[in-house]
Predict the structure.
Amino acid sequence: MSTPNVSSVATADEATAPRSNPFRSLNFSARFWVALGFVVLVLLLGVAGYFYPTSSSEKVGSLYDPPGNGLLFGTDNFGHDVLAVLMAGTRTSLVIGLVAGIIATTIGVAIGLLAGYVGGWLEELLMGITNVVLAIPSIIVLILISISLPKSTMWSLAVVIGITSWPWTARAVRAQASSVATREHIDVARLSGARLGGILVRDVLPYILSYAVMAFVLQVSGAILAEAALSMLGLGPAGADSLGTQLHWALAFQAVASGAWWAFLPPTIVLTLVSFGFLLLQASLDEVFNPRLRRGKRKQMKQTQARRLAEAQAAAATRPVGGERAGVGAGRARTAHEGGRS
Amino acid sequence: MKLGQYIARKTVWYVVALVAAVSLNFLLPRLVPGNPVDVIVSNLARGGAVNGEQQKQIYEGFVQQFGLNAPLWQQFLTYLGKVFSGDLGTSFASYPTSVNSLLGQALPWSIAVQLPAIVIGWVLGNVVGAVAAFRGGNWDRSVFTSSLFLSAMPYYCLSILLLYGLAVVAGIFPVGGAYSLGNSPAFSLDFVTDALQYYWLPFLSLVIVFIGGQAVGMRSMAIYELGGDYVNYGRAMGIGDNRITRYIFRNAMLPQITGLALSIGTLVSGALITELVFNYPGVGTLLFNAISQNDYPVIQAITLIITLAVLAANFLVEIVYGIVDPRIRAAASGER
């Protein structure tokens, strides 16, 4: 996130909020640092694999050797070092998440921008397609495509996950883009003869960027989880370790029932860290980009007793705007709200 | 926008979605280079599960069933005809069992574990979320953080942790399966009490995640409503807290009810991997086995049923919403 962009978001808020110090919004909350800590931990784990002496496909023991003997997490069902497999798997999962996240966010932002800015029949068409894709459960499409592929690699999986998970980003971006499209500076750009592409990239995109960043964060974790689900169903990347395939083999070889906790707990914990860390990161970014949310939080913490009063005051000062909530919900709670307030 | 117009428009889009979904279901496997039957039959041969004669029978059966020699459009029509008459084909892995009967065995298990989990989780989650929003303070913060954590955790991770903690380490529940060895499904008291012991773990793992998700949603909706203009207005008018709470609750419930309906739509697909973890004989386990055996008719049937359920639930929700809330109709036509 570049600085001019953050301040532009803040200035946009200034118009509606009485508060007028744009740099206040750069105060990251404690929650942000915790979330960032989780994410960095997972990243480090993935990178550490490059420096770890044992290869993930090297046989160092027999079936489910318990931790010890220089092996921090013992061995898995193939006799591989669980820690080595975990690091390789984390890396694969992160790569899949990043690639899929980039693809999904790019498609989603492009379609959302175009639909929201241009409007008319193009918007109808693009949103129609988006809604159709949204209505078909993506896990089903993922399963069907994975079965149809002769052999799935981590790259093909990443692309497949990417091209099936853009719709909700497109919808959120469209809502933002159509509100930006009515602002004065767009008219100025249009009158000065800027082209459609130029206006979209230079005049509309900056206002969307904070949403795009948050959407990207969630897309990455969503893709990692989607890969894990597919792999556990037996559709994982061939010849590569991922967090999902690690769990797949652990389940297939009865690691849980036989009490070999070292074989299944590490990937389970890393997946949880990924999921929770990225969601928390998105939520705290939301607070950074949306100062109003944070102010509400702070009051909540400090004035427990006078909470209702504070809430009423805050509401009187800043009327909640519809768009404020568009970026917030994207976890499982999102589906619950979309029907209601989209 | 008039109600009729709104419904007509939604219907058109959902028909498009249905056609797209069914076509995907039909087309995707056929985009594979080579004949899918060859792959399946050669896989069967490699596994040694069937002899040459059976193999030939299966091959011919499949070619005939789906009319693979006919042009694609004709195949599609045949496929549609079969699907609409309720015939989902014949399984390969357990030839000649029909897919219908396989699904018939698996579906009740999935529904039995999901439906109570969704309904109970929904009720508890909404209560927890609403109380957290109204009470605020530390209570709210701890509930919110733990709910967020639970709802963010992949549901299969929680399943694995519960299975290990409660069944393997603590030994409270049996490890995996749906009933004791030697028992077989029947509507007897003996069987039901036996099955109930195996039921708790999958149920718990689903319900806990669901409570978390619902509580997060309800809390944020209630807080959002607390800041609404009508609340301030009501307070200024001196309306009692109880009545305001009732208004807030009613407005915050609307999206939650949508959530309930949509979750019921994912009844079949919501627990795919939970079933795998617990080795529960539902649709998830059926799908897993079908995938590992390249049992294409079964996979196709499961994906179709899940899609139909989700589409139907979405459609019903949108229609009901259009009737209940005129703002939605206005938004759909861009009048807002």
In short: Chain B touches chain A through 78 residues (CB under 8 Å). The first helix of chain B runs from residue 3 to 27. Chain B is about 75% helix and 0% strand. The two ends of chain B are 11 Å apart (CA to CA).
